[in-house]
Amino acid sequence: MRWLPVVGLAAVKLAVSMVFAGRYGWHRDELYYLASARHLELGYVDYPPVTPAIARLVQVVAPDSVVALRFTSVLAGALVVVLAALMARELGGGRRAQLLSALAVVISPVFVGGNFIFETVSFDQLVWALLLWLVARVLAGGDRRLWLLAGLVLGIGLETKYTVAGLGVALAAGLLLTPGRRQLVTRWPWLGAALAVIMLAPNLWWQAGHGWDSIAYTLHHRGNTDGPVAYWLQQGLFLVQPLLLPLVVAGAVWLWRSGTFRALAWTAILIELLFFAVGGKSYYPAPVYPLLYAAGAVWLERSVGSRLLRRAWVAAAVVTTLVLTPILLPVLPADVMARSGLLKVPTLAEMYGWPDLAHEVAAAYASLHRSERRGAMVLASNYGEAGALDLYGPGLGLPPVVSPHLTYYYWAPARMSPNVVIAVGYERQDLEPLFADVTQVGTISNSYGVANQEAGMPIFVCRSPRRPLWQAWPSLKLLD
Predict the structure, then answer these.
(1) DSSP code, position 333
(2) Domain of 201, in residue numbers
(3) Which of the listed residues 311, 327, 343 is the one where a domain comes to its end?
(4) What residue ranges of the chain have pLDDT lower than 70?
(5) Which of 87, 324, 328, 338 is the most buried (most CB within 10 A)?
C-alpha cells in the first residue's frame, strides 16, 4: 500500500506520545481548559471556544482523565503528519517526498512537544495544515469551489486560536502579489472568507459583551517574548532543529521558483515577518512548517540523487530529535526527571505539584475554626492554582474557589462576601488593602522539590474584610 508508510509514521507518533501520556500529571494550561469545559461559553478571554468544547466532549467519555484529554491533542498532531504528505503530493512530490515530509513533522521538536499537552496549539496546527493543503490543491488546478471548504476550515480555526487570522492575511497578500491573484476574480474565495467571518460572529458577540477583553489581553502580551534575536534563533535551533532547517529554507526557495505555488512562498515569508513585527512568540509561525517540509522534500527528491546521502541526513535528524526527547516528552520517570536538572523547561515543570497544592490548601482550611469554615472561600491568584483546586478540592472538602485571572474572573459568584478567605499565591502587600487580618499559614511546595511557578508562594488566611469581596473584585482583575 502506497500510503502505509505515512500512516505508519502517524501511528508511531500517536503510540509513542500516548505511552507517556499519564506521566507527571496535569499541566496548568490543561487544568484551565478542564475548568473551561465546565463553563461552556461562546468565548473566553485568551482563546476561542473550540478547544474547551473538545474538552467537554472528552469529559463525557472519560471524566477528569488527563490521558483521554491528551489523546485528542496527539491525534490532531498525527493528522498533521498525513496532511504534510498530502501537501507534498499536491506540490508534485513522489513517494519519497511524501514520506520525508511526514517524517519531518514526526521528528520536528515543535510538533513532538507541542502535540503532547492538551491546548489550542495542536488543533491550530491541524487547521493550518488542512487550510494550506486545500490552497495548494486549488493552485495546482483543483476545483475552485474548494475555497468554500477553505473558508469553513478558516472559520473553525478562528474559533480555535486567533493567530490563524495571520495566515488568512498572509494568504490573501500572497495571492495578490503573484499570478495567483486570478483566483480572486472568482466569487469562491470571497464566499469562503464570508463564511469564515460568519462563523466567528458568535465569538465576537461574546467579546462585545465582555469589554473586548481578548483584545486587551493580546495587546498586553504583545512583545512578551525572549526578544527579536531569540525569535529567529529559537525557530532554527529548537523548534525546527538544525538538521531540518535546510529543508525549510529549500522548501521556501522551491515554492518561490515553482511559479505555480509562489503565493505559498509569499505566505510563509509573510507569516514569519508578521508575527515578528507584532511581537509574537517564536512558535506562532510553526504551523506553516509542514508546508515548507513538503516543499523541501520535493526539492530533495528531485535534486539530491545520492540515496546514501539522503539516508545519512535523515538518520542524523532523527538522532538529534531523540537526544532532545527528554525535554519534549515525559519519557523519564518523574523522580529521575526532578533530580536531573532538566526541569528548567516550563512545559514539564508545570506538570508537578498540583495535588500537593490542593492538600496544602486543605490543611489551611482544616485549621480554621468550625464557625469560620461556613461561608469561607478560596482565592487563587492564577488559573493554574484555581484549576487544580477545582479538580482536587471537592474530594478534600474545600469551599468554592474563585480567581480574578483571565476568564476565571467571570466565573465568580455575583455578590461574594466571605468573612474568611484562604488566599493562594498572593503576596502580603496585595492582600492587606482588602483585609485587616492577613496571616500566613503555609507555603506552596511539591514532593519532588521542583522549582516551578508555584513553588515557594505563600498561603494566607485573611479575616476582617475591609469591604465585600464582590466590591473589590474589579480591582483584582488580571489579564496577564
Answers:
(1) -
(2) 4-327
(3) 327
(4) 1, 222-226, 305, 344-345
(5) 87
